[in-house]
Design goal:
heterodimer; A: mainly alpha; 8 helices; globular; B: 221 residues; mainly alpha; 7 helices
Chain lengths: 193, 221
């Protein structure tokens, strides 16, 4: 019995370790989204490859996030990531407005929305250490025409039931909670095959 | 039976660790001090977050980095933090080669000396700013990192075989004297304390921090 307990402890430890590495190290957060009829396999999302061209040279797109001042404490890696994430999400939601209706794409897009808002929150929380000026710089950065188009697309997708709270499971981004609550119970208007 | 086997296994593992640690301790210690020039541990892991910030976004880096890292006309378009990243990435490559025991050649010695000089120039430029500038946690982190990395590369260059040229050794020695002088001043001004540096910092830095005493605090308003 004692041996069985120890074995169960070891197996449990291995299971937990694998999942922690998968989530935090490999960053496969999409594996932990809810399954079901609406959500498919994020790894098989076609939208991912369809949007590769949008990510080829984001620095050439003037509508993506730009710095409004040279007096800032934003790391270039964060700046690059902000541009890339905006370009990608803009492609998933704005350029291909119906992509979210396909279950594999939906799983991938929901995961990407989580990452997008997590990056915004991370940069805002770093900026808070430097005061109101820096917070305002970061806020302006994430308020480019493409970011505003993404916000509009998110409002539209929640209002027509293409994205619902249950799709996000336990990881609903703070910024999306009000819109998801507002349109709770809406049936999606996706084109039926 | 199982318990006996586990005890034997534990005893074997314990013995292996004890003997292994005895044999490999100097190598591990050298590797750890080499790591100082690789990544973030230049600054102390236990430093107060209000004292040590993010060196890559420090305002002093904006003023100094493109005097050290030559990116040509792209400097105007490039973020200073990207320039700092280039310098750190170059340092990382050299340190990893040295840690992995890559055969020493003239080119790797040249890289080590050149990196030591680059970090010294950066540290020199940072120390040349207004003293109070270094009260900013990001600026302080940049100062700590540049100083620590210079001394780590200087140590590596001085230990290289065949020895570096007399001219290079003199240049490193001059930079050492200059930076130790600046370090002493900042220790007295209270802009730097021992806890800002990691425990792997070079003995020269540790000695200054230990021997010099703070006489005032220029950061206090």
């Amino acid at each position: 019995m004692d041996f069985l307990k120890r074995a169960a402890f070891v197996v449990g430890g291995i299971f937990l370790g694998i999942n922690l590495i998968n989530y935090f190290v490999l960053g496969h957060t999409g594996d932990y989204l809810p399954g079901g009829e609406r959500m498919g396999e994020w790894k098989q999302a076609n939208i991912r490859e369809a949007c590769y061209p949008a990510l080829e040279s984001p620095e050439r797109d003037p509508l993506l996030p730009q710095l409004t001042t040279t007096q800032h404490r934003i790391d270039w890696q964060d700046l690059t990531r902000a541009k890339e994430m905006t370009a990608a999400l803009n492609c998933y939601l704005v350029t291909h407005p119906n992509a979210v209706c396909e279950r594999n794409n939906r799983a991938y897009i929901v995961d990407y929305i989580n990452r997008y808002f997590a990056k915004v929150d991370e940069m805002m929380s770093t900026a808070k250490r430097y005061g109101e000026g820096e917070v305002s710089t970061v806020r302006n950065l994430w308020d480019s025409p493409r970011n505003r188009a993404i916000t509009a697309a998110l409002i539209q997708n929640t209002s027509n039931g293409r994205l619902i709270k249950a799709d996000f499971g336990w990881s609903v981004p703070m910024a999306m909670k009000p819109m998801l609550d507002r349109y709770k119970g809406t049936t999606d208007n996706c084109p039926r095959a | 039976m199982v318990r006996q086997f586990l005890t034997l296994l534990l005893a074997f593992a314990g013995g292996f660790l004890a003997v292994g640690a005895w044999i490999w301790a100097p190598k591990i210690s050298n590797a750890m001090s080499g790591l100082v020039s690789v990544g973030p541990p230049s600054v102390s892991w236990f430093a107060d977050a209000n004292r040590i910030g993010r060196p890559e976004v420090a305002p002093v880096i904006k003023n100094c980095i493109f005097r050290v890292v030559d990116v040509g006309p792209d400097a105007a378009k490039m973020q200073p933090s990207a320039g700092y990243f280039i310098l750190k990435a170059g340092s990382m490559q050299t340190s990893i080669s040295s840690l992995a025991g890559k055969p020493e050649d003239l080119r790797s010695d040249y890289r080590t000396v050149s990196l030591a000089i680059k970090w010294a120039e950066l540290a020199d430029c940072i120390y040349a700013q207004d003293d109070r500038e270094l009260c900013d946690p990001d600026n302080r982190a940049a100062m700590v990192e540049a100083t620590t990395k210079f001394f780590a590369f200087a140590q590596q260059a001085e230990a290289s075989k065949p020895p570096i040229s007399a001219g290079e050794a003199q240049a490193i020695e001059n930079s050492k004297g200059k930076l130790l002088g600046a370090l002493k001043n900042h220790r007295r001004y209270g802009t730097l304390v021992a806890a800002d540096f990691s425990s792997f910092a070079s003995p020269e830095i540790s000695r200054v921090l230990r021997e010099e005493k703070q006489t005032r605090d220029i950061c206090k308003r």
